[in-house]
Amino acid sequence: MISMNPILEIEGLSLAAKSKKQLVTNVSLSVGAGESLGIVGESGSGKSLTLRSILGLLPRGVEQVSGVIKCDGRAAMIFQDPRGALDPLCPVVRQLAEVVYYRQNVSRRASRTIALELLEMLGLPDSLKHTDRYPSQLSGGQCQRIVIAIALACKPGILLCDEPTTALDVTVQQQIIETITRLQSELGFAIVFVTHNLAIAAAMCSKLCVMKEGKIVERGDSLSLLQNPQDPYTQMLINAVLPLPEFERSAGV
Ligand SMILES: Nc1ncnc2c1ncn2[C@@H]1O[C@H](COP(=O)(O)OP(=O)(O)OP(=O)(O)O)[C@@H](O)[C@H]1O
Known about the structure:
By secondary structure, the protein is α/β, with parallel strands linked by helices. It folds into two domains: 1-74 and 156-239, P-loop containing nucleotide triphosphate hydrolases (Rossmann fold, 3-Layer(aba) Sandwich), CATH 3.40.50; 86-155. Helix content is 38%, strand content 26%. It is built from ten helices and nine strands. The structure holds adenosine-5'-triphosphate (ATP). Adenosine-5'-triphosphate is lined by residues 17, 23, 41, 43-49, 59-62, 196. Adenosine-5'-triphosphate (ATP) is lined by residues 17, 23, 41, 43-49, 59-62, 196. It is a peripheral membrane protein. This is ABC transporter ATP-binding protein. One of its GO terms (cellular component) is plasma membrane.
């Protein structure tokens, strides 16, 4: 699965804990400009560590032992817990304007104007524009939209998403996924989307990598991988997606 015109290439990445325990082994992948790649796998399979290594954001106690990561463009990341990604003591519009100011190299006045435009792009209510609100005064979905706006303020060539909808309820999950997809088609950035939810990954991404115990066990186009999974672990993941119950249309129901 080599991408033409790759914006991100990872070659032979291995990560280990300070205790020498191997956490990620020989992971290689590439993502083309404007492409979306989903990384799926159960908890602890190494998805987040792989994603974090792209930005050099490995947690304390984990180190890269081999491999090369080439990212040919700006990368921005959205995390699982939107509230935790925001400063609780700073109004959200000010946080957004601050990133615009430093990343886009514009005046303070222009940074606020651009921040307000980003709020609009993310479909956030007008009330946020007039009164500066703190993260604790926003819903989880609104906080995640602010986090996405902050990521977009960096004008990324690639957006790294680490389970960005896991902490949200299902209807808000759907809205956030639609928002990311819409912005991708408007702005053209590539996406790496990490999730344990195969259905979400397949809906969002044209290509998938399946990770198990720190290794990629299968990869391919989303549709063919779902229709014809080769690895028993991928088959198990697909079978684990619960089907909707069929409602009986019996008399009186
Ligand atoms: N700071 C750390 N020190 C030691 N081991 C760690 C550290 N952070 C993560 N690990 C281990 O690395 C492995 C991979 O973790 P990672 O967070 O990448 O998994 P994941 O697939 O993203 O899981 P989840 O879906 O639950 O977030 C796990 O076994 C985890 O316990």
